[in-house]
Amino acid sequence: MTEYSQHEMIHKLPHAEMVDRFAYLRDLCAGRRVIHVGFVDMGCAQLNTQSGVWLHEHLDRTARELVGIDLDTAGVDDAKARGYEAYAIDACDAAAVAAAGIAPAEVVVAGEVIEHLDDPGSFLQGVHHLVAPGGILVVTTPNAAGLFNSIAVLGNMEVNHPDHVVLFTCRTLDAMLTRHGWEPFEHRVYVQAVKSPGTTTRDKVMAGGAKAILGMEKLLARLGRPFAADGMVVVARRPAGAE
Fold first, then answer.
1. Is residue 7 a part of any domain in this protein?
2. Which residues lie across from 190 on neighbouring strands?
3. What is the pLDDT of residue 225?
4. CATH of the domain at 184
5. pLDDT tens-place string over residues 85-126
């Protein structure tokens, strides 16, 4: 059993810039074959339609080819009816992914997926079958060390999607990727947009507070403290010699 000193538990965070999540991913996917895992964004369809924040639609604007993979059979069928190429597959099942025979892509995007999974390690193993030699895996996910929940906890609250079962910090996500055959090499951070508040005073106060906190996150990023932001992007590749 490995023994670690307290000093080995302190980690220098990598360089990261704050980006607009949609613009950054559109640029990364521009002109490339892209596989988007978890593209349906189950439970958020109405919000995505109303707010224009369905990531798959954004990627479709710039990708040369776009394939969607998701567990949500109804969502996959709906996407097919709308003209998208899509498959109902459990990406945590490496054998099922391999058996599907989908041509691998230059870019595989796992946007806001990993935090929903009981077994993120199996997921990271499964998507090896989807990334072409020389290609990249892009993971976006909430940041467990983000400022928003650090402040919310002072009010005895937590802000989290009801379906989230795990949150990562930069260090733990890099470690999980490395453990399952990926080499993280680029990091970015982002903040979510605050949707229009409701009509009640409570809604308006909460929306105002959220905007203030997100403004603080943006300021901290400009001051060189990007990992106070509530969202992370990690880009990873296969290590040299592992293709």
1. no
2. 231
3. 96
4. 3.40.50.150
5. 999 999 999 999 999 999 999 999 999 999 999 999 999 999
User: By residue range, what is the domain housing residue 114?
Assistant: 15-144+162-192+229-237
Q: State pTM to two decimals.
A: 0.91
Separation between Cα atoms, residue 194 and residue 142, nearest integer Å: 15
| pLDDT (mean) for 7-32 | 93
The residue written with tokens 């080819």 in the block is 65
Closest CA to 112 of 141, 92, 89, 133: 141
Q: What is the pLDDT of residue 207?
A: 79
Buried b (16+ CB within 10 A) or exposed e, 140-179: bbbbbbbbbbebbeeeeeebeeeeeebbbbbbebbebbee
Q: Rounded distance, CA 234 to CA 169, Å? A: 11
Tokens coding 144: 């467990």
* Distance from C-alpha of 25 to C-alpha of 111, rounded to nearest angstrom: 10
Output the CA–CA distances (angstroms, integers) from residue 66 to 44, 120, 151, 176, 181, in the order listed.
21, 23, 38, 26, 24
Domains: count for the chain = 1
Which DSSP letter does residue 42 get?
T
Query: Do the domain assignments include residue 203?
Result: no
Q: Is residue 25 part of a domain?
A: yes
- Kind of pairing between the strands at 131-142 and 105-111: parallel
Asked if the structure places residue 197 within a domain, the reply is no
